[in-house]
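Please decode residue identities from the backbone states below.
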């Protein structure tokens, strides 16, 4: 799909997205999992998807392959009140630089929640502390791309700092779309046993280990899960959500937050919302997931 074609499709889609949250009586959406990053980094991410990278192993067209300004405008057209600039290093020496970019992006984009990232390396505690003190409201940790154990000793003071500050971390820790050396519930379970007050948001509902990550959410009050790509037709083909767990989605309705992976999704944004509605868990559940829980996570400024 060309940029002009996807732009036209998005224009038509905006009315459907807005109708979704207006019908629920919401002021808009809070999306905890969207990607903004330096242009040269994002283009490398897109090139990876275009090449059918080994972590995906499937065709993955980028639906919103636009310049940064247009991507921000699209989220605003959709009625997304608050979003994030999820970004992550794949090696040491990148995180502090990415955090500097993200702080600048948040300063010039007031509806973006100030986002930061981390990596197990010397100096991690220093730059994470600097990011928190400069106003970072959420961090991104990507165990699959970064290929690191969250229990690395270099990160121990970082988790303690974030737990003490109450700043949440969105962590890609599930083994989808392909397992990594340190993905899965076991490393995360060990991390939470040592830092039980850590506010951890499990990306992609922990796909495909949904059950195990729901167990962790029931065990630890600070654990939430984001809906990113879960329940959609695309993901159901390779990582279907178990029907037997649908009741726990209702039980944990105050611990699930909307995430989409915009702009790197291989389908229109509205499909994530339609997938949530198809679960049949009711309007109160949808209101909590699509706005209230995320607004509570980020604070009143982002509601």
């Amino acid at each position: 799909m060309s940029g002009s074609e996807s732009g036209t499709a998005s224009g038509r889609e905006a009315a459907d997205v807005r109708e979704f949250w207006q019908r629920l009586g919401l002021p808009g959406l809070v999306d905890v999992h969207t990607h903004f990053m330096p242009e040269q980094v994002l283009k490398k991410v897109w090139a990876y998807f275009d090449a059918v990278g080994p972590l995906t192993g499937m065709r993955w067209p980028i639906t919103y392959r636009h310049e940064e300004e247009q991507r921000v405008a699209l989220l605003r057209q959709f009625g997304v009140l608050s979003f994030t600039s999820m970004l992550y290093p794949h090696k040491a020496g990148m995180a502090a630089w990415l955090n500097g970019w993200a702080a600048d992006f948040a300063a010039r984009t007031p509806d973006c929640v100030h986002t930061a990232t981390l990596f197990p390396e010397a100096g991690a505690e220093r730059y994470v502390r600097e990011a928190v003190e400069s106003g970072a409201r959420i961090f991104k940790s990507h165990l699959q791309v970064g290929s690191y154990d969250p229990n690395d000793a270099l990160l121990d003071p970082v988790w303690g700092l974030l737990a003490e500050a109450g700043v949440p971390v969105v962590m890609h820790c599930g083994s989808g779309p392909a397992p990594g050396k340190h993905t899965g519930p076991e490393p995360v379970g060990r991390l939470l046993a040592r830092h039980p007050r850590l506010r951890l948001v499990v990306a992609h509902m922990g796909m495909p280990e949904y059950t195990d990550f729901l167990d962790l959410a029931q065990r630890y009050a600070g654990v939430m899960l984001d809906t990113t790509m879960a329940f959609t037709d695309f993901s159901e083909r390779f990582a279907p959500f178990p029907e037997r767990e649908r009741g726990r989605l209702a039980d944990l309705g105050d611990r699930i937050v909307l995430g989409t992976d915009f702009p790197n999704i291989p389908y229109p944004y509205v499909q994530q919302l339609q997938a949530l509605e198809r679960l049949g868990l009711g309007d109160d559940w949808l209101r909590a997931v699509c706005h209230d829980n995320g607004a509570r996570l980020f604070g009143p400024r982002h509601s």
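Observation: The beta strands are 29-30, 80-84, 112-113, 115-117, 138-142, 169-172, 200-202, 223-226, 256-257.
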